[in-house]
Write a structure and sequence with these properties.
- Helix 4 crosses helix 5, helix 10 runs antiparallel to helix 12 and helix 11 crosses helix 12.
- The strands form 2 sheets. The chain has a 6-stranded parallel sheet with strand order 1-8-5-4-2-3, sandwiched between helices. Strands 6-7 form a two-stranded antiparallel sheet.
- By secondary structure, the chain is α/β, with parallel strands linked by helices.
- Strand 6 and strand 7 form a beta hairpin.
- About 55% of the residues are buried.
- About 50% of the residues lie in helices and about 10% in strands.
Length: about 400
């Protein structure tokens, strides 16, 4: 097991009607002028935004709300919200939504605390030294952004659209309000994509450079089994509280970092993350649902890299699915097959053709590989380092 430092400061308030504790949490973390970030009209139509506004108003907390965040969140919207938050004098940013809303709220917090910088500077390498506190009322079990140190934005103002993430302790939310009942009105496709994303956050860490992290592996394998069990139930019966609560908790644990402790990753981060980079390039070019981009490339990535450590894939199959095949390669292949069956049970695509709805052409493979490699300027992965040609080969396999 490699050396590691672990820090997970987010206060989690979990259960029914917990959104009514929002004002108390805002006060606890120093908020008196709260800027609320949300997405489309569902949060308004459901009455959630009004319940939160009433809760804040009844407790004497000034507030301003702004919606319009879209999936694969845009830097242009984050800039617009940042300008409004600065003018309002916000001292805490509250996200009401899922990963895209939370990531946007984090960007707004960074931009508001640093008005002399354009917020994209922080996504381009400028060190972040201060930010505003961020809280969240979670409505989608998927990204795990409520407990993670990461935030992803798409820069839609560039000629070549770029989707990038940053990791910083300033991305840690101060609190997360998690009521599983708030996720029960989601479309089934969104629930399925969320379950896939949760699975993949653990997969990316599980398939890092691993040196005998037995307890970490047990935690990851248990999380895999729980998502595999309850994900399809949640898709088929969104009002099943047990399934929705298990999925919500899995989402937070999957991205809080604990399932990768002790592994060695890329650029100091635990785990591999190649599939996320491959999927993010698809999202950047086609605006595809994030979880669906991951399921479209996962099996191809597995088969491309598994000879690097076939025993790892065999362990995954045996510990997660109970595969009894003695031969490591046969066991590994069975684990991949069963995972694809799980993705299919969520209604997720297993190829780029299924995802995009057309046969992917050569020029598209080139564009995806150029986008993923930042124009041949970077490699991805840690389990196996992948360059432009590797990326293109995986996209080809995933057609």
């Amino acid at each position: 097991m490699n050396n590691f430092r672990y820090y997970a400061p987010t206060e989690i308030v979990f259960g029914k009607e917990t959104e009514l504790q929002t004002a108390a949490l805002v006060k606890k973390y120093g908020g008196s002028r709260v800027f609320i970030v949300y997405g489309g009209q569902s949060a308004k139509k459901s009455g959630l935004i009004d319940r939160i506004l009433n809760n804040l108003n009844e407790n004497g907390i000034e507030n301003m709300a702004m919606g319009g965040v879209v999936p694969n969140p845009l830097v242009s919207k984050a800039r617009e919200m940042t300008s409004a938050a600065i003018q309002f004098g916000a001292d805490l940013i509250l996200a009401v939504g899922g990963g895209s809303v939370i990531d946007t709220a984090k960007a707004v917090a960074h931009g508001t605390a640093n008005p002399d910088h354009d917020l994209w500077e922080f996504w381009s390498g400028t060190p972040l030294t201060k930010s505003l506190p961020v809280g969240t009322v979670l409505t989608i079990s998927a990204a795990g952004s409520e407990t993670s140190d990461s935030a992803v934005l798409t820069n839609d103002t560039l000629e070549d659209v770029v989707k990038k993430g940053i990791n910083t302790p300033f991305n840690r939310c101060k609190f997360a309000v998690m009521n599983p009942e708030l996720t029960m009105t989601l479309p089934k496709y969104q629930i399925g994509a969320g379950a896939a994303d949760i699975f993949m956050h653990t997969s990316e860490r599980y398939f890092g450079e691993v040196t005998g992290n037995h307890l970490t592996d047990e935690i990851a394998e248990g999380l895999f089994r729980t998502v595999i069990r309850f994900g399809p139930i949640a898709v088929n019966d969104p009002h099943n509280y047990e399934a929705m609560s298990e999925l919500m908790w899995c989402g937070s644990v999957s991205h809080v970092g604990i399932t990768g402790l002790g592994s060695k990753g890329n650029a100091g981060r635990e785990g591999d993350w190649a599939c996320h980079q491959l999927g993010m390039a698809v999202s950047a070019l086609y605006d595809s649902t994030h979880g669906a981009t991951l399921t479209a490339v996962w099996a191809s990535w597995c088969r491309y890299v598994m000879d690097t450590d076939i025993r790892r894939f065999a362990q995954f199959a045996r510990k997660v699915y109970g595969v009894e095949e003695a031969d490591d390669r046969c066991a590994a292949e069975e684990g991949i097959r069963r995972t694809n069956a799980f993705f299919a049970s969520l209604g997720m695509p297993l190829s780029l053709r299924e995802l995009l709805g057309h046969e992917v052409q050569e020029e598209e493979l080139i564009a995806l590989s150029e986008t993923c490699s930042w124009g041949h300027k970077r490699t991805i992965g840690a389990f196996r380092i992948l360059d432009y040609e590797d990326m293109k080969a995986i996209y080809q396999m995933a057609k």
